[in-house]
Amino acid sequence: MKADSKWVLYTAGGVVFLISFVGMLIYGYKTFYLESEPAASKQYAYHFALIAEETDNDYWRLVEKGARDVARENDIYLEYVAPQKADNEELLNLMDRLIAAKVDGIMTQGVEGQRFVNLVHRAVERGIPVVTVDTDVKSSERKAYVGTDNYVAGQLLGQALLEDTDGEQYVGIVTGRAESINQQERLAGFKAAVKTKSRIHIIETAESNITQIGAMQAAYSLLKQHPNINALVGMSALDGIGIVEGLNEIAIARPLYVVAFDVLPETIRLIKTGDIDATVAQYPEEMGAKVVEVMMGLQQNDLLDNQIFTETRIIRKADISRSGELQ
Ligand code: BGC
């Protein structure tokens, strides 16, 4: 090759390299910089984190919605994080990381055990307020709790059963996760409400792992093992829906009383069709909105009232309008 053509080749190669290099820088900057640091692209008043029990759970998506609405109105950057599938260890690891990231406030489902208490202590020491939502851990240094009074909600489940049934009731209970504090409180409230009534017999409790399929399997095996069960109680948001599926699997002919928890659209539909007799409503969207307001307040002062209970009530067919609204 002549010296001239070599020179042309090297120059052309150099130009192509330069163009690709600059292109890579611009493209890389746009892709990675903007995606990895959304909070930095705008100045927010505060950066709060909301930790849910499970990412794609319909109930927690409602808590998130309420929280996002208030965050948007108040210029707050809200990070919604959760384990893919309910898992306390993973939730606690997320909390640990958020403390290290020095967010301005952590709103989280309360979790049983010393590690949660220690993490709340560490957050507070570093000036990060923690507010529990949906489930409280009273023994921790959380600044406040926003959510249902879960013991009272459990009593309401019992009250519905007592009001809606006559005669001997052999009760199967489907609970979300036995290790969840809110499930333990609801169960205690339920037991207290029916304790003095000798016609109510609690037969067995089975876990759904807060999934619909888990609740279906739990109901199925409760009924297979105890054919005398004539009332089923669901204690977390997808349990009632799964119980009905389980009943359909068995194709049970005799009447069975079903009381559920929460008012997800499918639960409302099943109350209208008569498959679920009653449910205990919680108000997750209100919880989400309120917890962000409380966290905003805590950026200025501590609270006087540190237990903020949202509403709970029994819902039956008569409480639902034709369009599915609660009345
Ligand atoms: C509970 C939540 C739970 C959800 C599961 C609700 O009733 O309050 O703690 O994560 O059910 O579906």
Number of helices: 10
Outline type:
globular
Q: How many β strands by DSSP?
A: 12
Going by CATH, the homologous superfamily of the largest domain would be Response regulator
What's the layout of helices and strands?
Layout lengths: L2 H34 L9 E6 L6 H16 L2 E6 L6 H13 L4 E4 L5 H12 L4 E4 L10 E4 L2 H15 L4 E7 L5 H14 L5 E8 L4 H14 L5 E4 L4 H12 L6 E5 L3 H8 L5 E4 L2 H15 L8 E3 L3 E4 L11
Parallel strand pairs: 1-2, 1-3, 3-4, 4-5, 5-11, 6-7, 6-8, 8-9, 9-10
Antiparallel strand pairs: 10-12
The structure holds beta-D-glucopyranose.
Structural write-up:
- By secondary structure, the chain is an alpha/beta fold.
- The protein folds into 2 domains: 38-148 and 284-310, Response regulator (Rossmann fold); 150-282, 3-Layer(aba) Sandwich (Rossmann fold).
- The protein contains 10 helices and 12 strands.
- The strands form 2 sheets. Strands 2-1-3-4-5-11 form a 6-stranded parallel sheet, with helices on both faces. A 6-stranded mixed sheet has the order 7-6-8-9-10-12, with helices on both faces.
- Strand 9 (257-261), helix 9 and strand 10 (278-281) form a beta-alpha-beta unit.
- The radius of gyration is 26 Å and the shape is globular.
- The chain starts with a helix and ends in an 11-residue tail after the last strand.
- The model is unreliable at 28-37 (pLDDT under 50).
- Beta-D-glucopyranose (BGC) binds at residues 53, 57, 59, 134-135, 176, 182, 210, 236-238, 261-262.
